[in-house]
From TrEMBL:
The keyword Signal applies. Pfam families: Phytase-like (PF13449). Keywords: Signal. It comes from Paracoccus stylophorae. Residues 44-284 form the Phytase-like domain. The keyword Oxidoreductase does not apply. Residues 133-152 are annotated as: Disordered. This is Esterase-like activity of phytase family protein. Residues 1-27 form the signal peptide.
Length: 299
């Protein structure tokens, strides 16, 4: 009898929470895979804000917030944990006239997305805009600037950028103009900007990275800053369309000082489940470090 009462109580609570619109506990298991500290003596190394991992889990592109793009291969052990980052090339991104972008207002590159056609897409803060590159060393292709939104200002622009299989870009500002105001989700397709939908904002959590997974879900990396206690991060996923977000789940929430300032997110299938690869921005400070942190999702 007590077991029946417990099951009945759980069922009632489930109905209440669902009706209230509260995000439910994830229906997947989230396993920690490992952390790798990436080091280099190059002056341009650091400040990583975006990352893309190839479908094989080996090839990578990583973007700094000073308009530097690195690419190469990931060295992994037999268990799939990162053991090294082999840099094959690097490029200083240029403007549409072929001039190198300077750090700051024009060169604050934040979001990175790779199209199926190999085109590289980058979102910028400061002068809020997106640019595409057919080749890392080529001049930027200019695109219409996004609409000005509440909360968008210097250092609070489009940090998160993701691309769908149909080639449309999805982005959202780092701030929404108020802790109780949802984030507008922007879509760029066929040369035109539009507001796709809005997603819930939880106070203090700010979006810094995004990707679409092989399961069709939109994955969003968010950050909270705790002063001397450093950063905490969380990852939530949802389905996105014009009717609004659905099937939202908070997959992962880290503790302050557990990791560094995670800003970039790549989502891919490692053959055993969906892998989340995150990279940290060390702000070019000796007290911080560039970390690659990985988790795996299993149904």
């Amino acid at each position: 009898m007590p077991h029946r009462r417990s099951r009945a109580l759980i069922a009632v609570l489930w109905v209440i929470l669902t009706a209230a619109g509260a995000p439910m506990a994830p229906a997947v298991t989230v396993d920690y895979v490992g952390t790798h500290v990436w080091r280099s003596d190059e002056d341009s190394f650091g400040g990583f804000s975006g990352i893309e991992i190839d479908d094989d889990g080996i090839g990578f592109h990583a973007l700094t917030d000073r308009a530097m793009l690195y690419w190469g291969s990931v060295q992994r052990d037999p268990q799939g944990r990162i053991r090294g980052m082999n840099v094959a090339g690097r490029a200083h991104l240029k403007d549409s006239k072929g001039k190198r972008l300077k750090p700051g207002y024009l060169g604050d590159s934040e979001g990175l997305a790779m199209g199926r056609d190999g085109r590289i897409w980058v979102s910028f803060e400061g002068l809020d805009r997106i640019a595409s590159y057919d080749d890392p060393d080529a001049p930027a292709t200019r695109h219409p600037r996004p609409p000005e939104l509440p909360g968008m200002r210097i250092n609070s622009g489009m940090e998160a950028l993701a691309i769908r299989d149909d080639g449309s870009l999805i982005t959202l500002p780092e701030r929404s103009g108020g802790e109780d105001r949802p984030f507008p989700v922007l879509r760029y397709r066929d040369g035109t900007w539009s507001t796709l939908t809005h997603i819930r904002r939880d106070p203090r959590w700010l979006p810094v990275g995004a990707d679409f997974g092989p399961d069709g879900y939109f994955y969003l990396l968010e950050r909270d800053f705790h002063g001397l206690l450093g950063f905490s991060s969380r990852v939530r996923r949802m389905k996105l369309d014009e009717a609004g977000p659905t099937d939202e789940e908070i997959l992962l929430t880290t503790q302050p000082l557990q990791y560094d300032n995670l800003e970039g997110l790549a989502v891919w299938d490692d053959g055993q489940g969906i892998r989340l690869t995150m990279i940290s921005d060390d702000n070019f400070l000796f007290v911080q470090r560039t970390e690659l942190v990985e988790y795996r999702l299993r149904d």
